[in-house]
Amino acid sequence: MTRLYIAGIAMTVFGRHLERSLHDLAGEALQGALKDAGCAASDIGAAYYSGMTNGPLQGQISVPGQVIFSKIGIERIPVFNVENACASGSSAFHLALQSLKAGATDVALAIGAEKMNIPDKARAMALFEGGWDVSRVEENYATLMKMGEGITPPPGSESDRPYSRFMSIYAAMCRWHMRTYGTTQRQIAAVCAKNHGHSVHNPYSQFRKTFTIDEVLAAPPITYPITLPMCAPLSDGAAAAIVCTEEGLKRIGADRRRAVEVAASVIRSFSHRSIDEPEKAVGRLAALQAYEIAGIGPGDIDVAEVHDASAMGEIIQTENLGFVDPGQGGPAAERGDFTIGGRIPINPSGGLESKGHPLGATGIGQLYELVTQLRGEAGARQVEGARHAMQENGGGLQGVEEAAVAIHILRH
């Protein structure tokens, strides 16, 4: 079996970069990854560009990767443009690995970049409305909102300002989980407070402000049980990863001590399961497949980055990944199991809620955090003795779950 490695990886600070261009952000990430790998752009044999905002927000409907790369020193090689909603960056990374397995090259690049903060915020928010079947919007919305039936939101728990319908869907999932397992709003707030606490020590994070659980609960509401700090913001930023075979590592002269092996890379899509069949969740099935490929189990994972566009997402994914039994994600979060120093630290970067969520760069940003952890270079947020790390990144919505899920297991 071909062994594959991350030789270099880098990211920009995620945040509001109103004064910077998309190619400027992408160039910073690329140069950081090249420096980390100790190679030149001319060493790369194939490149995969991930971005969702190029067409709708910048007007670059086609060939965004070729356009961006033309400005940052990548040309002549095969370039592929990847869109898989919020899982776009992870999908680009997966395809870069596939090019290595196929023998098309021994060094490949995956890069994601987004500029989501534009003067017309409503236009940016409208991006999320394209993350499901647009021919059945009202039907889909009505079906998904039924998940939240049985729990009546208290007075004053609904924002009077516009917000993404995806937050309404997350809230419905929250209420289903609350009704089914007894999960509480306080437990969801505990996830949020934990992630904001982690972000204080991450220099790449969009937000670096602590919240107590009570402050999260008292924050402006979005839609019950979600409050503002529980939600990922609109973010600008870029992240890049250079992946190699054994031969590629030798050719570029990479430092083997810092190369991190990709033990498993899995992409799966939704099924028309019922919400009452969590054992068939796409995230759970993808995780089981990844564990089998890597030859390990949930108990071997030392640190994880999971998709928390809302804090509830982390609870759902910790259950899907097998870190806790169904319904136990909330109590585990409240106990501190997922905090740095706890049983299995989750989102030491601060997660999407704090670090930010520049859609096409998000997945590679998660991988950056895990590589940093496995190399022992995370500073005050370091998870001691981390050898195995797991990433989960979801995108879009079909049926009652993510349209696409990416899982990666890394080891060092």
How does this structure look, described?
There is one protein chain. This protein has 412 residues and is an alpha/beta fold. Helix content is 37%, strand content 17%. It contains 15 helices and eleven strands. It has helices at residues 22-37, 54-58, 64-72, 88-101, 121-125, 137-145, 165-181, 185-199, 213-218, 246-252, 282-294, 311-320, 329-335, 351-355, 359-374; strands spanning 4-11, 46-50, 79-82, 107-115, 221-223, 226-227, 236-245, 260-269, 303-305, 388-395, 404-411. The strands form two sheets. A nine-stranded mixed beta sheet has the order 3-2-4-7-1-8-11-10-9, sandwiched between helices. Helix 8 packs across helix 13 (329-335). The longest helix has 17 residues, at 165-181. This is Thiolase family protein. InterPro entries: Thiolase, Thiolase-like, Thiolase_C_2, Thiolase_N. Residues 5-209 form the Thiolase N-terminal domain.
Taken from the alpha-carbon principal axes, the silhouette is globular
Report strand %.
15-25%
Total number of helical segments? Answer: 15
**Element pattern in H and E:** EHEHHEHEHHHHHEEEHEHEHHHHEE
| Main sheet strand line-up | 3-2-4-7-1-8-11-10-9
Question: What is the average of the pLDDT values?
Answer: 95
How can the largest sheet be summarized? 9 strands, mixed
The radius of gyration computed from the alpha-carbon positions, rounded to a whole number of angstroms, is: 20 Å
